[in-house]
Recover the amino acids of this structure.
């Protein structure tokens, strides 16, 4: 009986370790860096996009650039108008480092014209988001995240 008890105990211990290891293997959420000098805008972006992402924050372009160059992000979402470095500076400096989406409160036509002058080809969305679904779909596409 003692031998059986030891084997059963080892089996239970093995199964419980296996279960705990399986729970540790949850799929990695796409990591998104939000760069904006307004906390409320980052709060809204997190709400719009939902819980399927690992959000990190930077309060200005310089901080965002530094973080994006030292950490791996699946996507960077940056505001256009910020002190120190604006969204265009962020997009230029992060070329080849991480994909970038820019959001702005400027009218779409004005933002697109400025982007052409900056020689950038990144997605840009105007706030308030008239077509929230398009924004959500673009983020999902660029991070490889399926809607949940």
């Amino acid at each position: 009986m003692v031998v059986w008890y030891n084997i059963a105990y080892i089996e239970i211990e093995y199964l419980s370790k296996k279960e705990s290891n399986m729970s540790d293997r949850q799929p990695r959420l796409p990591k998104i860096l939000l760069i904006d000098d307004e906390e409320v805008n980052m709060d809204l972006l997190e709400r719009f996009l939902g819980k399927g992402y690992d959000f990190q924050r930077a309060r200005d372009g310089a901080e965002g650039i530094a973080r994006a160059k030292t950490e791996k992000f699946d996507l960077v979402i940056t505001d256009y108008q910020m002190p120190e470095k604006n969204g265009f500076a962020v997009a230029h400096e992060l070329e080849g480092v991480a994909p970038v989406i820019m959001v702005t409160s400027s009218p779409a036509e004005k933002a697109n014209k400025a982007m052409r002058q900056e020689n950038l080809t990144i997605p840009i969305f105007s706030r308030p988001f008239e077509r929230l679904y398009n924004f959500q779909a673009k983020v999902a596409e660029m991070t490889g995240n399926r809607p949940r």
Observations:
- DSSP finds six helices and five strands in the chain.
- The first strand starts at residue 31 and ends at 35.
